[in-house]
Amino acid sequence: MRHLHLDLSTPRPCFRALNDLACLLNASKRYKKGISLDERMLRIEQALNDYRGCLILFVDEVDHVRRDSDTFVTFLVRRLPQAVPARLILVFASNRLDWPDHLDPRVKSFLKTNELIFKPYDALDLQHILRIRVEKGLHAQAVGQGVVEKIAALASRNHGDARQAVALLAKSAYLTEKSGSPITLSLVDEAASAFEQDRYLTMVRTAPVQMRVVLSAVIEAAEKARA
Description:
By secondary structure, the protein is mainly alpha-helical. It has two domains: 2-109, 3-Layer(aba) Sandwich (Rossmann fold); 123-205, Helicase, Ruva Protein, domain 3 (Orthogonal Bundle). The protein has nine helices and three strands, in the order E-H-H-E-H-E-H-H-H-H-H-H. The chain has a three-stranded parallel beta sheet with strand order 1-2-3, with helices on one face. Helix 1 packs parallel to helix 2 and helix 5 (123-137) packs across helix 7. It is globular.
């Protein structure tokens, strides 16, 4: 039995996702241009020609295949099992419950899924994750008492997202480097405020031009009303 972890946490097109899978199977050493999509699929099949056991393929963030996602799923679910002697066990993970709804109906017709829905992390889960990150990335004396518990409580109350909790810890550590003091509870509050502000700034910077113009007009009108 073999298992492969295809990490698609960074969005990419179908060809790039299949190229990453080919690299995991030693069918490709790096990203190559000038190769057709069908050629890339053929090389993946050739890499599995001699394997007759069970192959578990875990595709993390499968909804991040931004272009030709139907082609990607069709290859894994329909073409590949028929082309190789191995028994394939496919595990697709996504944070979007409606991910299959965006697939072509013809693709969904042969995608027989067994769904497992996991609950968001609670405060205790997040504390465990954060303590691992503290042990690996920070000095023990750099984190004040109650800091991990507070970050976990904030994250579990708002979203239960481990990435956001770790990002808040990283933001707190960054402010700690600037101040030269350990991470305190008040510093976590400051980091949470800065983190929220950064998120809105990113949203505005990446918004369409029309939306930014409307936002600018609203701000200008509000300033004139106050004057």
